Amino acid sequence: MLRKWTAGLLAVSVLCPAALAAEPARVEQGVVSAWTAVRSMARQSWQEMCQFVIGQIREQSAAPDGQPVAVASLQELGEQLQTAIAAVRQPPVFDVSALSAQAALELDVKNLYYGVISAHPDYKYAYDLQAERNGELLRCTIRYMPYRSGDYPEGFAGAPVGSLPELMQLARENIARQSVDIRITNTAMTVDDMNKAFQQVGGGYILCQLGRDGTTITFTPQNQLTHAAAAARLDEIDRLAETMLARTVTADGSAAQKAEALYTELTKTVVYDHRYYADRAAMPYDSTTAYGALHDRMAICGGYAQALQVLFDKAGIPCYTVSGKANGEYHMWNIAYLDDVWQYFDPTYDRGRAAYGFYRFAVPAEQLTGYQWDQSWVERLTQAAVLAYTTQ
Q: Do residues 143 and 213 lie in contact, with contact meaning Cβ atoms separated by under 8 Å?
């Protein structure tokens, strides 16, 4: 009991001091019930367990019989909203008589909500909040993505998606459409990770995004193209990649041999579009895409990286683009699964080096001196890809 009290009250005092204002008996009851349940949460982080404890305390210390919960400050109100969002539930009705000086309380609450989402991006499944004040009472309604709340519309039949690779594949298969309905079955997937994964799809010609409520993937043509023209451009990229693959590799070659042959061909035959530095306004958009590399044989880093991704994918080598900085300048390169290891490739850096030896072909992260990128995101993406590959 002492250990439960110590851990519970420490969590409350650090993360939510306002909860201590509840009646002591109900606080004790909340701590005990919370830490009984925490025994089954061994895999959760300390912060998640503390947030769970706080939620339990608030449930026990809330006004009985559904009566409004009094809040004494905007900070306390924000903490209540955060606890509700973390638990994917609706907050109680609030007694805001102590906040009578807040003339625009609904707007203040909206800003509190934005602050919670900004501080906790993983909570973006709470995609909207509406606040309505009626005298001294405030009612907040939070709208949750159904994949977290389970509240799908009756009869909804979206395509099931349980991983980032499945999400990207579904997007590729439906890229010529305006949208496709989805039912996300993995509650651990975050909104930010899903939208980052979509950056691997569309080739710079069609923007893929998670719909506002998480039940659709939307497809938007870019660069002032019609949807049909953008989809046709992607089809042409596929055709060009297949042509290069056919003339460059042999069917009986190993994955490593295919990778080196395609990398060599790309870095030998595509030149850098120096208009990016000399006259950027004159540089065509295509130079930022695989189309510029494979059709015009001229591209900047985005074109090189996206072309290598398409080529490796067609050769059966899992490959993604990586965005970040190299020596302080925005840059794009690749990571690919070769010989059972994820390794990095930078065809832009190695252009024209085929006769002399490559510096950025199949290298570990430690060898990318001067590069900066979100390695935690890349690790999540590649781990999901390996899991999907090994469970096929």
A: yes
Helix residue spans in 16-73 (DSSP H): 24-38, 46-61
Mean pLDDT of 308-317: 97
DSSP tag of 20: G
Residue where the block lists tokens 């909570």:
123
The conformation of residue 270, written as its DSSP 8-state character, comes to: -
β-pair type (371-373, 271-272): unpaired
- Contacts (Cβ under 8 Å, ≥6 apart) of 237: 203, 289, 290, 291, 294, 295, 310
Q: Which phi and psi angles does 18 have, rounded to 5°?
A: -65, -25
pLDDT tens per residue across span 22-48? 444 444 444 444 444 443 333 344 445
Side-chain-facing half-sphere of 20: CA atoms under 13 Å: 11
d(C-alpha 221, C-alpha 177), whole Å: 10
Tokens of 212: 């506002």
Which value, to the nearest 10 degrees, does the dihedral of the CA atoms of residues 192, 170, 240, 305 take? 20
- Amino acid at the residue 215: T
For tokens 């651990």, the residue is: 188
CB atoms within 10 A of CB 315: 20
What pTM does this model have?
Answer: 0.83
